[in-house]
Specification:
This protein is an alpha/beta fold. It has two domains: 11-59, no CATH class; 68-177, Rossmann fold (3-Layer(aba) Sandwich), CATH 3.40.50. Helices cover 31% and strands 26% of the residues. The chain has helices at residues 34-45, 74-85, 105-111, 133-145, 164-177; strands spanning 2-6, 10-14, 22-25, 54-60, 68-72, 92-96, 119-125, 150-155, 181-185. A four-stranded parallel beta sheet has the order 5-6-7-8, sandwiched between helices. α4 links the parallel β7 and β8 (150-155). The longest helix is centred in the C-terminal third of the chain and has 14 residues, at 164-177. The radius of gyration is 19 Å and the shape is globular. The chain starts with a strand and ends with a strand.
Length: 187
């Protein structure tokens, strides 16, 4: 019998002592939480890990299946590396105006893998002159050939930038991967 339950993502933030000009995302280990990791660090250091200019974010998500990784340009590339090389248990990956080079370590890792891989959502502007649209398409084709379920959206007349259409498509995909209410199976 399934019971509906709302899944809550908690975050813990340590603000910089001065002007914020950089950020650090510090991920906890299995079975812990962002708050637990922050407390452990405070115990070891006898104070918060704090910097003059760096905001530290300690996110918490129940299991990793409620996490999405993604980003724009190099951020999307980093998300693909993290998910497909090290964290294949995440709910999905998105990459906006992003690509992997032809000899990417991601491809090498996926050639040696088996099992379920996180779905990839990609959008790319057809007029992108910095990260060519064809590079995004090649990345998508290669990942698809290696077993990744992919969704690729070409956005007409968009350069290396975000667009409303792209973000609306991303938002819709995010809600399919992380719906507001998660079902928990009783065993």
């Amino acid at each position: 019998m399934a019971a509906a339950s709302a899944s809550v993502l908690h975050r813990c933030i340590v603000l910089p002592a001065g002007r914020h000009s950089a950020s650090l995302i510090f991920l906890h280990g299995s079975g812990d939480s962002g708050q637990g990791l922050r407390q452990w660090i405070k115990q070891v250091l006898s104070q918060d890990l704090r910097f003059q200019h760096i905001k530290i974010i300690y996110p918490t998500a129940p299991p990793s299946v409620f996490l999405l990784l993604g980003g724009f340009s190099m951020g999307g590339c980093m998300a693909m590396h993290l998910a497909y090389r090290n964290h294949r248990d995440v709910a999905g990956v998105f990459a906006l105006s992003s690509f992997l080079n032809k000899a990417s370590a991601v491809y090498q890792a996926l050639q040696k893998s088996d099992g379920v891989l996180p779905e990839l959502f990609q959008c790319h502007g057809t007029a992108d002159e910095l990260v060519l649209h064809s590079w995004g398409e090649e990345t998508n084709s290669m990942l698809k050939s290696l077993g990744v379920n992919t969704k690729f959206h070409s956005i007409p007349d968009i350069y290396h930038e975000l667009s409303k259409i792209e973000l609306e498509k991303l938002k819709s995909w995010i809600l399919t991967k992380l719906p507001g209410k998660m079902e928990i199976q009783d065993e």
